[in-house]
Predict the structure.
Amino acid sequence: MSPGYLLDTNVISHIMQGRDAKLLTRLAKLQVGQAVISSVTLAEIEYGIQRRSQSAKLRYALDQVLVHMDVLPWDAKVATCYGELCHSLEMQGISLSDFDMMIAAHAIAAKVTLVSRDKAFTHIPKQRLKVEIW
């Protein structure tokens, strides 16, 4: 099955915490392979784990997530999309963090819906990026 959803860093964090029943129920309804994460999201999560004192507990939680989700690699197609997206948004006066831009470009290049709770993505035109709040 090809992926339909790319889960943003904040959504993965909520999954790892395991306290959002509504989110976990929504995920459980998806078929294996429908939800994926970006390698950029994995990098953000890894950085967060290194900064925390409960890193063993968080590492276990991340490992449990990764058992159920593939990590999409950053490739030349995504890099090209990133450059174009950044330039296009810059010309419109829109600025997001580097990580958010990279994740948005990854979702656009992969032709999937970005699942996030970050309102920053609403600044990207809907015809470019499909976003759902879970």
Remarks:
- The chain has a mean pLDDT of 95.
- The radius of gyration is 15 Å.
- The chain has one domain: 5-132.
- The CA atoms of residues 24 and 63 lie 16 Å apart.
